[in-house]
C-alpha cells in the first residue's frame, strides 16, 4: 500500500516540469516518453502493446510528441512500411534537466525527514531499482 501511495503522490507533489520551466506532458505522452527513453526504436504497435494502450491512443500520444519535437520517426531498414520512434536530442536534454530538477526537489523533501529515515530510504535504493527493473521487464 505504501508504494501505491508513493506512486500516486510523487508526480503530484514533486513537479519537475514546473520547476524546470517546461509545460507538463499529458500522462499518456509521458508514459510513451518513459518507454522510448528505455527502449528506443519501437513502432507504434509495440508502444501500444508495451503500455497496454489501444493503438489509437498510442498513436494520438505519439502524434503529440512528434508535434512537440520530442520524438523522431525513422523508417525501418528491413520494412519501409514501418516507422521506428526514438526521443530527439531535445527530448534527451529535457529529460536530463527534468531529472536534475526532480532530484533537487526530492532532496528538499528528504531534508524534512529524520536522518534515520533518510538513511533507511537510501539503503533501500538498490532494492527499489531491482524492483523497477523487474517490473519494466514484464
Helix and strand topology:
Layout: H1 2-13, H2 16-19, H3 27-38, H4 44-51, H5 55-67, E1 71-75, E2 83-87, H6 89-110, H7 115-123, H8 125-136
Antiparallel strand pairs: 1-2
Helix pairs in contact: 3-5, 4-5
Question: What descriptive keywords fit this protein?
Answer:
single chain, Arc Repressor Mutant, subunit A, 138 residues, elongated, 2 strands, mainly alpha, two-stranded antiparallel ribbon
| CATH architecture descriptor | Orthogonal Bundle
Q: Which structural class best describes the helix and strand composition?
A: mainly alpha
N/C terminus separation: 21 Å
The CATH fourth-level homologous superfamily: Winged helix-like DNA-binding domain superfamily/Winged helix DNA-binding domain
